[in-house]
Amino acid sequence: MAYDKNRPATSEPVKTGWPVLITNQQAIEAAIVQDHDFTTGGSQTGKHNRATLLDVAGDEAGVAGALTIWNDAGTFKYRNTTGTVRKISADGDVIPAATKMWFYADSAPTGWTIDGTPSDELLGIKGGATYTTGGVQAGTWTQPNHAHTTPDHSLTAAENGAHTHTFQVARDNTGSGPNRASASNNAYESSDTTESSGSGDAHNHGNTGNSATANTWRPLARVGIICSKDAY
Q1: Which of 31, 40, 32 has the alpha carbon at shortest distance from 1?
Q2: What is the pTM of this model?
Q3: Where are the domains of the chain?
Q4: Is the separation of the CB atoms in 226 and 100 below 8 Å?
Q5: Helix (H/G/I), strand (E/B), else coil: 82
Q6: pLDDT tens, residue by residue, 106-165
Q7: Residue 148: how many CA atoms within 13 Å on its side-chain side?
Q8: What is the dihedral of CA 101, 106, 110, 113, to 10 degrees?
Q9: pLDDT digits (tens, 9 = 90+) for 25-76
């Protein structure tokens, strides 16, 4: 049955117009009942119990200041009050296209594409006024304390600093020469000093070996991927 808004006409007799009124009423019920609580003998609330959107094959123009929803080839879309079209999908379409995000996975989720530029790098988190959009931070690593063991070595006479040695000399009143004591002393001791020895020449401790961290060192990490949100 089809609804006919032009019948019955104002000049049409009740005899012929009454059946048309009944037909139109039945057609209205058949249309409304599809997504509403509105059936003969029902609760007659008229409220929605579901929404069936036919394919409009494109984007709806919408109404300024209003929210418009529609079915575009099986994709649920809406145009917000400012005119922006969004897709309502499994991810909610709350992430703008080209947004980059880190995933703890080895392959990109549906709707995302792996960004192959960042590779074998750590993630750096910055905040507040120090944040740099898309920046690269050249940081430094603080290594654990460590010691270097050098081999034992000795200095040559020339490498020692200049110095003298003082020693005690015993003298007595016997004999003759520089060790002879005076007549009033039978024996005593005196101090003598050797000539200066050593010149403090430069010396080295030898090669302690390479203590640099090998470039294969890596911290314990959870490896993931950075992906870019596909266009809707």
Answers
A1: 31
A2: 0.38
A3: 1-50, 53-93, 95-120+223-232
A4: yes
A5: coil
A6: 999 988 999 998 888 888 776 666 655 566 666 566 666 667 777 767 777 777 778 888
A7: 10
A8: 60
A9: 888 888 887 888 777 876 767 787 788 889 999 999 988 889 999 999 888 8
